[in-house]
Amino acid sequence: MATRRHDPERRDRIIEAALAVIAEGGVAGTSHRRVAERAGVPLGSMTYHFTSMDELLHEAFSRFAQRISERFAERIAAATDLDALVSAIVHIVHDDLAAGQDELVLTLELYTLAARQRAFRQITHDWMRRSRAVLERFVDARMAHELDALIEGLFIHVSLDPAPRSRDLTRDAVRRLLSRSP
Question: In angstroms, rounded to a whole number, what is the distance separating the alpha carbons of residues 76 and 80?
């Protein structure tokens, strides 16, 4: 009789493997089999740890959004005044968020999934709420909402535009928006 191997990190490996598989082939290209292979676990582990693909996707995207939120919060928390906030936002847009293809694909896949399925919308709502709460250390709630939207839009443009914005243009856009703050 075979003994069951104790593997307390298996669930986490599956979630991380799911993120890698999504980054490679999108949600549509993600299957239990591909994730199990990437995680190095038996296929049966998938249904043991996750009752459905939607549950796995929800866990994976929740982890991804939390990870990005934590990095965002650390960067913004280091700012000591509005000039430092502007610099932090430029760094977030050009370096943190646009650092790699995987994060771009994961972000856009999450947005698409949230647009199609209400169950995933809460992940994006929570992510936006966390971002705005961090920004509200410096600006009011309305400006935090506008800044958050600007950051998201700039990130997409910097990542996808064949002639992306310069850091100076991003800095100018953030300063112009902040100059409207009461």
Answer: 9
Place of tokens 């796995």: 56
pLDDT in tens, 110-166: 999 999 999 999 999 999 999 999 999 999 999 999 999 999 999 999 888 888 779
Q: DSSP 3-state assignment of 162?
A: coil
What residues contact 30, with CB distance under 8 A and at least 6 apart?
A: 18, 21, 22, 53, 57
Q: Within a domain: residue 4?
A: no
Closest CA to 152 of 135, 121, 178, 128: 128
Q: Is the pTM above the cut of 0.85?
A: yes
What is the C-alpha separation between 6 and 45, in angstroms, rounded?
Answer: 12
Residue 91 sits in which domain range? 10-179
Q: Is residue 3 a part of any domain in this protein?
A: no
